[in-house]
Amino acid sequence: MIQVLKITRTLLAVLRRAFLIFALSSIAVSPAVSQNSAPRATPSTDGSLRLAASSLVEGLSETNWRDLSSWGGAQVATDFIQSEPVEGNPASERTEVRVGFDEEAIYVGAWLYDSEADQILVGEQRRDANLRRFDAFLVVFDTYSDRENGFVFATNPGGIEHDGQVIDEGRNTSRGSGGSRGNQGRQQGGAQGGFNINWDASWTVLTERDDQGWYAFFRIPFSTLRYGTSSEWGINFGRYIGRKNEQVFWAPLPRQDNLYRVSYAGTLAQLDVPVRRSVTVTPYALSSAQKVPAVTSNFDYPFEAGADAKIGITPALSLDLTLNTDFAQVEVDNEQMDLTRFSLFFPEKRPFFLENAGRFAVGNNSSAQMFFSRRIGIGAGGAPVPINWGSRLSGRVGGLDVGMIHMRTGEVDGLAQGNGYTVARVARELPNRSGVGMMYTGRDATGISDDFGRTFA
Question: pTM value?
Answer without folding.
Answer: 0.72
